[in-house]
């Protein structure tokens, strides 16, 4: 893949990934062929900031976990009212990294 395309992709989507994953992602993207590159462009990445706002506003209902694809944890938060709100507060600090990790798992399917 063209290095300029890869660098543009990383610059525009770096907020969706953890900082230590960027160099690995760049190396793997450089090895992609054109067909996989087109499929990669269609991947729906979740914005960690948006998920944090949802977590602050409706985290006790588990909506933040449902949005990133953690259905089991979302059901658990919903049934326990966010773990008596303790789990909700803990998630305010952890949900952005969890979102970035889920985004990386989505991208891994194409690498």
List keywords for this structure.
single chain, 111 residues, mainly alpha, 8 helices, 72% helix, elongated
Question: Layout of helices and strands, plus pairs?
Answer:
Elements lengths: L2 H11 L8 H9 L3 H7 L7 H11 L4 H6 L2 H9 L1 H4 L1 H23 L3
Helix pairs in contact: 1-2, 4-8
Radius of gyration from the alpha-carbon trace, in angstroms: 16 Å
The average pLDDT is 90
Q: Give a quick account of the main beta sheet: strands, pairing sense, barrel closure.
A: none
Strand content of the residues, in percent?
Answer: under 5%
| Estimated helix fraction | over 70%
Structural class: mainly alpha
- The poorly predicted ranges are none
Question: Terminal Cα separation, in Å?
Answer: 12 Å
What is the general shape? elongated
Q: Helix count?
A: 8
The count of β-strands is 0
What is the domain tally? 1
Secondary-structure element pattern, one letter each: HHHHHHHH
Describe the structure in your own words:
Helix 1 packs antiparallel against helix 2. With 111 residues, this protein is mainly alpha-helical. The protein is built from eight helices and no strands. The chain has one domain (3-108). The mean pLDDT is 90.
């Amino acid at each position: 893949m063209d290095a300029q395309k890869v660098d543009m992709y990383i610059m525009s989507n770096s907020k969706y990934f953890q900082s230590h994953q960027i160099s690995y992602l760049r190396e793997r993207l450089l090895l992609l062929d054109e067909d996989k590159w087109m499929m990669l462009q269609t991947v729906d990445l979740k914005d960690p900031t948006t998920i944090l706002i949802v977590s602050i506003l409706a985290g006790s209902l588990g909506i933040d976990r449902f949005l990133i694809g953690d259905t089991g944890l979302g059901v658990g938060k919903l049934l326990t009212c966010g773990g008596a709100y303790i789990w909700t507060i803990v998630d305010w600090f952890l949900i952005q990294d969890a979102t970035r990790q889920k985004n990386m798992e989505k991208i891994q399917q194409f690498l």
